[in-house]
Amino acid sequence: MNSRVQNGGTKARLRSEAVALVAAGGMSALSIRALCQRVGIRESSFYAHFSSKDELVSALLRAAGAEAPHSLAEELALLDLPSSDFVQRLGEELLLLWSDRESRNLRTVVEAELARSTRLREEFNAGILNMINRVAAVLERGVNAGELVPHAPPTVLAWSFIAPLAVLRSSLLAAGATEAHEEAGRTLARAHITGWLNAHTGRGAS
User: Fold this and answer.
1) Nearest partner of 128 among 68, 191, 42, judged by Cα
2) Distance of alpha carbon 181 from alpha carbon 174, whole angstroms
3) pLDDT at 12 over 80
4) Looking at the chain, which terminus has fewer C-beta neighbours within 10 angstroms, N or C?
């Protein structure tokens, strides 16, 4: 058990330190040797966790794209919340997730890698679509239960909720954003969450 826990910790550290290397010096700064030196392990130990540098970068891209948000949406869906509560919780949890420094630094990895690799771009896009489909499934239940006003198909409703938050993440909540921009991003995100709920639940109607 201790070995398994230790291995999990080492893999997480490899990912975290890889993000730090890229954030500080770009993709050219990320090498297996430099990474292992930061983590304090032998280069041979790297391959117990990742088969190659490309596999590590793929893992970072999944985390930066939609792996964590998709997992979050899955977890919230299992709570079987009313649709409005699900949307509120999802928005708040995404704000917390995207305020994390490491999560924001992952954008540096994304910008560098998506331009050069069709395979990684496809993985990234698939993760985003998986998240949208999970959110859409919850919204469809809400429409069927009369909790949401069916202004559009569930997938479109999901996009209309997620897309503005994603834009804010890539701009005002991006790595390197000033404190003022971060605060403006959070304020706009919260206003979007409230506005979306008012529009699609009818609770903002007089």
Assistant:
1) 68
2) 9
3) yes
4) C
